[in-house]
């Protein structure tokens, strides 16, 4: 419970300092927790150098249900160190930006410790920042430049794929409700934050409201190794198995049907040239695999004169290759209201649902394997029994308390139906608390 007490004490300190002045440590106007370095930080940004340091912590405790209902609390953490360089200001290179970012993850997952049957592969996670190893990683190291009045943008270097394709809002602690979905359902070829990989992409704004993007990224299993910090800084391409090629069409209507409020709609597809194993037939290999997706985000209402306050909605849907992918499809819908209180314009209330559907061909393989071992029904104790996976539904209700640009707290309540897609495991209730501090 040590992590929980630390987070609770921090919450009390924040609430107790509500009336701090703008120059004090816990001021609601404070951009960074460690301040502006006597004005030097702002001066560096004006010169083209922007530095970021942040810590994200996500605690979760099981209230009821799950595979093991013994109550515990697990905390996952992430440290991020980064810098962005405006090369127009620094070197006179017009429309050119560079960035470098390193991350370190640590902690444990409540889903792995209590929620899912340990014999099943995980689908969701109650803490979205858990995963890809407790190591340092070079998450970003790229350069982006624009041509033709910046209507064409070219980016190359080390990056995550959802930085530029299948990206979406993250207003939740639950993994299935946070950001793009491809890295959660085809993680063997699509790498999200914090994994960085060699890639390049080009975006062409061919009309004021329309942009077409095309990318190419390495498929290299060395990038997701987690044995040591050196694995997180692997820069060679010795074991590249192919390339993942995404294409995405994005529409940002200037005048939407919702009183002209902003929105973005994206339709995309990918093809991977890396060989992929068939999920049902042992030994069968396919030349590649493909996926399709739809992302939509729309502001529905505006509260008062503040253009950012109001109700937002997002939808994310993915259809994966049935021959080679365990998770055949995902659906996610989320609503959040920003600025629910007049004196808290940057707070928000969020509610979301996310569903992951396991491929029926995977279920057939699991059933036949169990039958070959003499099992005709769920066995809670046999170590060689493989639980049959179907679909998993995740629900989250939260309140985001944005004390200042430097400090965010997000208490949340989560419900997981059929953890890891196993209907014999009790539905679980989880209480969580996310905290982000920008230094």
**Cα gyration radius (Å):** 23 Å
- Mean pLDDT across the residues is 92
The neighbouring-strand order within the major sheet is 1-2-3-4-5-6-7-8-9-12-13-14-15-16-17-18
Q: In percent terms, what proportion of residues is strand?
A: 35-45%
* Shape annotation: globular
Helix count? 6
Oligomeric organization of the protein chains: single chain
CATH structural class: Mainly Beta
Instruction: Give the H and E element order.
Output: HHEEHEHEEHEEEEEEEEEEHEEE
Major pleated sheet: 16 strands, antiparallel, barrel
CATH architectural arrangement? Beta Barrel
**Which parts are unreliable, with pLDDT below 50 for 5 consecutive residues or more?**
1-21
Look at the structure and name the CATH superfamily.
Carbohydrate-selective porin OprB
Residues in helix, %:
10-25%
What can you tell me about this protein's structure?
With 439 residues, this protein is mainly beta. The chain has one domain (54-438): Carbohydrate-selective porin OprB (Porin). It is 11% helix and 44% strand. It has helices at 2-16, 40-46, 87-91, 110-115, 182-185, 360-372, and strands at residues 49-66, 73-86, 96-107, 136-147, 152-159, 197-207, 210-219, 242-251, 263-272, 276-277, 285-286, 289-299, 310-320, 327-338, 348-358, 391-404, 407-417, 426-438. The strands form 2 sheets. Strands 1-2-3-4-5-6-7-8-9-12-13-14-15-16-17-18 form a 16-stranded antiparallel barrel. Strands 10-11 form a two-stranded antiparallel ribbon. One of its GO terms (biological process) is carbohydrate transport. This is Porin. Keywords: Signal. InterPro entries: Carb-sel_porin_OprB (IPR007049), OprB_Porin (IPR052932), OprB_sf (IPR038673).
